[in-house]
């Protein structure tokens, strides 16, 4: 019984590994911004919260952009070397499109909220953390905390794109091989049992 039916070239194994690990790391990093970082940021007063959010944004972007590009290049490379009619090819192409699609998604849906928060950061740069009325008169949906909450929700939508892309990379890897080959196994009966 063969452990694997085919031997994958080392370069493809490396590219596939990079595509899977970088997309899954990107998913975890991106989702943790909304599930871990933002809830902590939301506990701070508005002037501090917006500064902390800006740090989350800056650090997240420094990790996210390169990982999106790296994972798309890796999955595109793997797809290029696959049969275009195969399911793994289609899954890798889907991943190659989905993973970097977070960039136009960000520009279309998240950047307007980013710009509002960056303006708030600049406006509140010298505000006292003890000033409870620092955002008095600001429309309810336009406060620092409301904008950060909106950003976290949009970020989760971005994580869904990454998650679907990462899932495609895993399914493509699992789909391309049979783990065990059964062509040489057979059942015999009666006198045939002994050879």
Automatic annotation (TrEMBL):
<feature type="transmembrane region" description="Helical">
    <location>
        <begin position="92"/>
        <end position="111"/>
    </location>
</feature>
<keyword id="KW-1133">Transmembrane helix</keyword>
<keyword id="KW-0812">Transmembrane</keyword>
<comment type="similarity">
    <text>Belongs to the anthrone oxygenase family.</text>
</comment>
<protein>
    <recommendedName>
        <fullName>DUF1772-domain-containing protein</fullName>
    </recommendedName>
</protein>
<dbReference type="GO" id="GO:0016020">
    <property type="term" value="C:membrane"/>
</dbReference>
<keyword id="KW-0472">Membrane</keyword>
<dbReference type="InterPro" id="IPR013901">
    <property type="entry name" value="Anthrone_oxy"/>
</dbReference>
<feature type="transmembrane region" description="Helical">
    <location>
        <begin position="156"/>
        <end position="174"/>
    </location>
</feature>
<feature type="transmembrane region" description="Helical">
    <location>
        <begin position="12"/>
        <end position="42"/>
    </location>
</feature>
<feature type="transmembrane region" description="Helical">
    <location>
        <begin position="62"/>
        <end position="80"/>
    </location>
</feature>
<dbReference type="Pfam" id="PF08592">
    <property type="entry name" value="Anthrone_oxy"/>
</dbReference>
